[in-house]
Amino acid sequence: MTRTTLSELSEDDQKLVQQARDIMANAYCQYSKFKVGAALLCKNGEVIVGANHENASYGATICAERSAFANALTKGHREFTAIAVSTELEDPCSPCGICRQFLIEFGKYKVILSSSTTNDIILTDTYELLPYAFTPKSLDDHENEQKHHK
Ligand SMILES: [Zn+2]
């Protein structure tokens, strides 16, 4: 994890952060008032955005990160290079546990945590966010071990 500022990022990463900040305007968060935006950079260079969407049945709420992923996966994307996440918190906020699990499903890539009220940035990656994770490899390992035990 590295703490830095927006101006220290590459131009592409700055754009990704800006897209995460911009899409916060579409958050449906009338219960928490906690706007979150995410911008997911796909391997082909396309950026897919998402915002958090709450529900009167609170458990039905979907986070911005998973909203972006649902959009991207629906469009057929399966490989990702980076995700930027933004909230109004002055200190960049980190994805929730469910989102960390969702993110690591697609391997190791850059995670840029940002704020819409400051230029503070935290740079990390999916592996650092969820150490010792359960991943698709866990299922593959299980299948292979079962074969060898027969
Ligand atoms: Zn989440």
From TrEMBL:
Coiled coil: none annotated. Keywords: Hydrolase, Metal-binding, Zinc. It catalyses: 2'-deoxycytidine + H2O + H(+) = 2'-deoxyuridine + NH4(+); cytidine + H2O + H(+) = uridine + NH4(+). Zn(2+) binds at C63, C96, C99. Its EC number is 3.5.4.5. The active site is at E65. Pfam families: dCMP_cyt_deam_1. One of its GO terms (biological process) is nucleobase-containing small molecule metabolic process. GO terms for cellular component: cytosol. GO terms for molecular function: cytidine deaminase activity; zinc ion binding. Residues 11-137 form the CMP/dCMP-type deaminase domain. The keyword NAD does not apply. Substrate binds at N52, H53, E54, N55, A56, S57, Y58. Its cofactor is Zn(2+). Belongs to the cytidine and deoxycytidylate deaminase family. This enzyme scavenges exogenous and endogenous cytidine and 2'-deoxycytidine for UMP synthesis. NCBIfam families: cyt_deam_tetra, PRK05578.1. This is Cytidine deaminase.
